[in-house]
From TrEMBL:
<dbReference type="InterPro" id="IPR023213">
    <property type="entry name" value="CAT-like_dom_sf"/>
</dbReference>
<dbReference type="InterPro" id="IPR051504">
    <property type="entry name" value="Plant_metabolite_acyltrans"/>
</dbReference>
<dbReference type="GO" id="GO:0016747">
    <property type="term" value="F:acyltransferase activity, transferring groups other than amino-acyl groups"/>
</dbReference>
<keyword id="KW-0012">Acyltransferase</keyword>
<protein>
    <submittedName>
        <fullName>Coumaroyl-CoA:anthocyanidin 3-O-glucoside-6''-O-coumaroyltransferase 2</fullName>
    </submittedName>
</protein>
<dbReference type="Pfam" id="PF02458">
    <property type="entry name" value="Transferase"/>
</dbReference>
<keyword id="KW-0808">Transferase</keyword>
Length: 458
């Protein structure tokens, strides 16, 4: 159910409608009004939102879109929000508590939906070459600003490229849930939209039982204390400046690794290292890590860091349900000397560092999480800050079909904020990968040279 306001315009982007969409009440079922944050969630309270952008072919005019397609987009969004209702709520401090937070939803809460049109070059934006990152960022919304104790969790922007394409951009506060839940939401909305208004939740239904996350060591308090101390120093790393103030020369490029390249990397690494699972994730991340370290020219005596998150749903004892709604991610840290990464076969050292970090996870909350956040926060302000990863090929983002076919391109514009690379499945090649990177233009040119030149090794 939506409510609308007037239109506005600026430069290449013209806002046609600004409205709010509430969860459908048609089949209301009792749900908890508030979900307490767990220690998995609390680490994301101060971080910047995550952005995801889907770009589809759409050879229709603005009039056809607004009259024939937009009503269905709104009604199907309302149906999807019924199942993922916390996304329509807010992050707030729990009543009568100074250090407890919760996701709170009450009847009438809604999600901001912006409808716009643009004259940006659609074919340019769906390419793999270096593109102006600010143009991609203009296709995702800003989260509405309320106050520190009532923060919205989700905003959506639908942007029409008349007669060419359509973009659907999401901005989500990571404290609400992780990428597994968000992809579940995207696919459920798309499924309902494709079925023209039928409630088509992608099963299984999300589970909101927070009691499955046990915290025997009070990691919640430890992590909250770490975050409060870090932000008390007025450190800007966790909450970067607004997108509008980002450097104007940043470009966003997509690198691809085909299955044969990935197998070549595995063969190379296995020839020298056999003590860990040499997975697609390990060798692909190792290769990009070494390319970026070489591009940036860090001093050889420095230590380089690669930080990524691991899904803990199956690692916890007992395991949590696959459809558990909330964050269930733990950090994993890889470290190597720069001098080892920039050698001819530096990808082997990188893969060993990443692979052994994964092998070192013990499956016990106390052993695997205590001290992790303080370690990561220290790395953020190090001379050689960590490369991090957003997304996963397991999400299968190219399966999100609103009825217009598979996306032509899926991007994570928010990687420009935190020095991350995005990782997803390939649109066109089964078993391939797409890797998004944002860098200043001159560094991107150097990275392309490193990336392509490295193929000679495998």
């Amino acid at each position: 159910m939506a409510s609308s306001s007037s239109s506005s315009s600026n430069d290449s982007m013209r806002v046609l409608e600004q409205c709010r969409v509430s969860p459908s009440p048609a089949t209301v079922t009792p749900q908890p009004a508030s979900l307490p944050l767990t220690f998995f969630d609390i680490t994301w309270v101060y971080t910047s939102p995550v952005e995801r952008l889907f770009l589809y072919p759409f050879p229709h005019s603005t009039v056809v879109f607004t009259e024939s397609y937009l009503p269905n987009l709104k009604s199907s969004l309302s149906l999807a929000l019924h199942h993922f209702y916390p996304l329509a709520g807010k992050l707030r401090r729990s009543p009568d508590s100074a250090d407890q937070y919760e996701l709170h939803y009450e009847e009438g809460d809604s999600v901001s939906l912006t409808v716009a049109e643009t004259d940006l070059d659609f074919l340019d934006l769906v390419g793999y070459h270096a593109r102006d990152s600010n143009k991609l960022s203009s296709l995702v919304p800003r989260l509405p600003k309320l106050d520190d104790d009532n923060r919205p969790l989700l905003a959506i922007q639908v942007t029409l490229f008349p007669d060419h394409g359509i973009g659907i951009g999401f901005t989500v506060h990571h404290v609400a849930c992780d990428g597994f839940n968000l992809t579940h939401f995207y696919k459920s909305w798309a499924s309902s939209c494709k079925s023209r208004g039928h409630d088509s939740l992608v099963q299984p239904a999300p589970s909101f039982d927070r009691s499955v996350i046990v915290d025997p060591c009070d990691l919640y308090s430890e992590f909250l204390g770490d975050m409060n101390r870090f932000t008390a120093d007025n450190n800007p790393v966790l909450v970067p400046a607004a997108v509008e103030s980002a450097p104007s020369n940043l470009v966003h490029a997509t690198f691809t690794l085909a299955p044969d390249r990935i197998e070549g990397l595995k063969t190379l690494v296995r020839s020298k290292a056999k003590s860990f699972n040499c997975s697609t994730f390990v060798v692909s991340c190792a290769y990009l890590w070494t390319c970026i370290i070489k591009t940036r020219g860090y001093k050889s005596a420095m230590k380089a860091h690669f930080t990524f998150v691991v899904d803990w749903r199956k690692r916890l004892q007992p395991p949590t349900p696959d459809a558990y709604f909330g964050n269930c991610l733990g950090c994993c840290f890889a470290e190597a000397k720069v001098c080892d990464l920039v050698r001819e076969n530096g990808v082997i050292a990188a893969a060993e560092a990443i692979g052994r970090a994964i092998e070192g996870l013990k499956g016990r909350v106390s052993n695997d999480f205590a001290g992790d956040l303080s370690k990561y926060l220290a790395q953020l302000v190090a001379e050689c800050p960590p490369l991090t990863v957003a997304g996963s090929p397991k999400f299968k983002v190219y399966d999100v079909d609103f009825g217009w076919g598979r996306p032509l391109k899926v991007e994570v514009p928010s990687i420009k904020e935190g020095g991350a690379m995005s990782l997803s499945d390939s649109r066109d090649v089964e078993g391939g990968l797409e890797i998004g990177i944002v860098l200043p233009e001159h560094e991107m040119e150097a990275l392309v040279t490193q990336f392509v030149g490295g193929f000679e090794l495998f």
